[in-house]
Queue: 4 jobs
Job 1
Amino acid sequence: MSNLMHELPLAITCGDPAGVGPEVIEKSIRGDNCKDYVVIGPRTWCESMSNAIGAKTTVVGPEDYIAKLGSPSIQSAEVAVDALREAANGCIEGRYRGVVSGPVSKHWLQLIGFDYPGQTEFFADAWGGCPTMGFVGKSL
């Protein structure tokens, strides 16, 4: 990886903003050097991340969207996909060095017509590669 790539931030997507992703992400990067990350998600979550831990943010989804924790929906799935698209495009355009994707509800993604079985296949298609996961649990 070139020195220039090391200077680019890592994109972290919110996952389904009505799920555990936003909480897990905030706890994972709290106290870390947030200049190395850009968190991508809905406005209210991005504002919270910026205020709480100084994270850089990129807002996606409707301006007035507010997640109802524990209640995934069509709209929360659409916001999750918006975050995935922003991360994929940002890597292609040279704004991000890579992506960490928050957990999504595959059920809700399928309900909105997401064309992939999961995030791995989405990124492989966006970047023209073969689907490869970096970390896998024993039940996958």
Job 2
Amino acid sequence: MNSISKHVVPWIKNLDPYNVGKPIQELAKTLNVSEEKIVKLASNENPLGMSPKVHSKVNNEIIKINRYPDSNSTSLKKAISDLHGVTVNQIFLGNGSNDVLECLAKTFLRQGTSSLYSKYSFAVYSLATISSGANSIVVPSTKNLGHDLSAFLSHISSDTKLIFIANPNNPTGSFISRDEIKSFLNLVDESILVVLDEAYYEYLDDLDKTNSVDLLKDYPNLFITRSFSKAYGLAGLRVGYGLGNEEVISFMNSVRQPFNVNCLAQMAAIFALEDQDFVEMSRIHNRQIMLELVNGLSSLGIKTLHSRGNFVLANFGNQIKHTKHSLGIKLFEVLLSLGVITRPVTNYDLPNYLRISVGTEEENKYFLKVLPQALDLIHSNSNYV
């Protein structure tokens, strides 16, 4: 094995795999309870599930899975084209938006090049960059852990090829306006591709919504990614897409896997796009339940960052003083023992924070019920404090 491992490219050897979090099935087995007893508030999924219309229609497509899917996702591209008013040649389909991001890295990054992204932004940007042999340049964030566009501009160098900006941002939930994005694009050289990751776009309130897609016609170096895993409720089917200029899409199609979006995912995404009422219902539910979650945390003295996504980033640092360990990890572990899955963010150098997804009303109430118990358990553990 040693003789083989020495041939692994050096930038892969120290690369940690993406941590996907604790699966419901695994925790249920550990606690010896049914899966229905587990409350998962970790992965920013839609707690309402998928549209009932999608569910009923996808069942009719199962009979076709003996055939390979349409590798070009022709029908889905047409549906996305109709929604956004772009040509089908401006659309790139992926096995989730992660796949789209990785194809961007394969297309534009190599040794001797670099990408830029905020300190507190999606971990996949780093993984995609490093796995391509390129350098990751981490840009300092604002005081509220959001994007500092001025800092981005000051970190651009001759080897910068990609700039990743999540909007709304994950895990902080921060948001930058259309005008800010446009001003930023005016100052970025056209040879650098700006990737606007809008996985949580559908959760924006009407006043916050910006039609970033219409910027594509004026900025050929803009690329927008969207996901069906969040508001559309199709996380398990893995389908996402990118919008950009036709030349960029053509190059990306050269490096993607054939048949990268399965037939059920393609059809489910088409049906999901047809039910925008469900998406709007999901947005309204998210805002209402998020407010209850934030208020509940506030009543316990726990501060949260204002979020435009379907999650909140909560700071538990004032709950226990003089801690020797990462409070976020310990709280995550204790909550697991109580049947609740959350998301620690120590990998972002936020040891006292947890990212908490907005669940159903019942799930959030249960979380707020057991949270004081979890904190009390940590307080009583003399080995911890």
Job 3
Amino acid sequence: MIRAILGGTFDPIHWGHLRPAQQVQQLLQAQLHLMPSAQPPHRDYPGATATQRLTMAQLAATALDHCVAEDWELNQARPSYTAQTLAELKQRWPQDALVFLCGADAFASLHRWHQWQHLFDHANWVVMQRPHSQVTFNATVTKVLAERQITQLDQFIQQPQGAIYLAPTTAIDISATAIRTAIQQQQAWQHWVPASVADYIEQQQLYR
């Protein structure tokens, strides 16, 4: 089985996360795991609690095929570092191939990630690219890409770990910050998230 991992603060989770990930899931014929971060080390603490963010991920997962919410990082008493999480997930699923999903903007800062040299030890990576969007990679990231990129999908799928595939995905111009701001300003926002997530946000009175 191929397990595609999409991590994030998901505060809240929205179609900007879900649509590109869904496209990659269909491309790989994978099981998609939506994994909320526990203590994101590179940003402020989120507005919703860990339990609320997990619940929103669970609700979002029901809107997609072959998708589940993953509570692994929320159960760890440590900051969310991708290299460590992927190593632990590989121990959990030793027979399965792991694919970590990453946006091109985040991939451009790869050299600043914790233990970034070990990010490819246990998983392949799909970098989700927005059509007509130009993201500039520095020399370090460009070298990593040159060494690891595989352009043929069938060859990429056969790799046990360490490969990178650039996947064009549909860009949806949404951010969690914009959603939180719209809620605070009593503007329309519900169409940016699955209906079940919108209902939960209103029920819990989040981001007000």
Job 4
Amino acid sequence: MVLILLGRWKVKGREHIPSSGPLVVVCNHRSYWDPILVGCALNRQVHFMAKAELFSYPLLGTVLNKVGSFPIKRGQSDRNALRTAINLLKENKIIGVFPEGTRSKTENLLPFKPGINMVAYKAQCPILPMAVVNSRKVLLGWFYAVEVRIGKPIAFASMDQRPSSEVLEDLSEQIRQAVSDLLK
């Protein structure tokens, strides 16, 4: 409803969204609108990882908790956040991640932070690449069309043993490339 009032927006690639099962959504991050746009584009609730500092604001922290977001401490290996993500995925939920770790001030993708690949491996679930275009211009109304683009899910190959760091880096680059391709 809010998006209809604020301006034009469209979603491309909805046919790629699995109707059930666990899913890790990976998306670029340009504005505060990105989680709302991603959540509206999917037909299922998304539990977003959000920087822990946001939960310290009383109103915002309450809203984030109510919509199912959970905190992640940036700049360190936050095992609690990773455990929360894995548990949600084991309950067939969707988690949303902005692996750049912060909002990019340019149209270029920032390097992806490590960690989400291990979550997908442990939960043995697909990764859904997404891209949001023009999200910084949501408040400019009908002059700009905001677009959410959804790519084909990337299946994490079933492995009996922990993948090497090289395998995880390759997967991270594959995911980053999929998001980058959606931005073109």
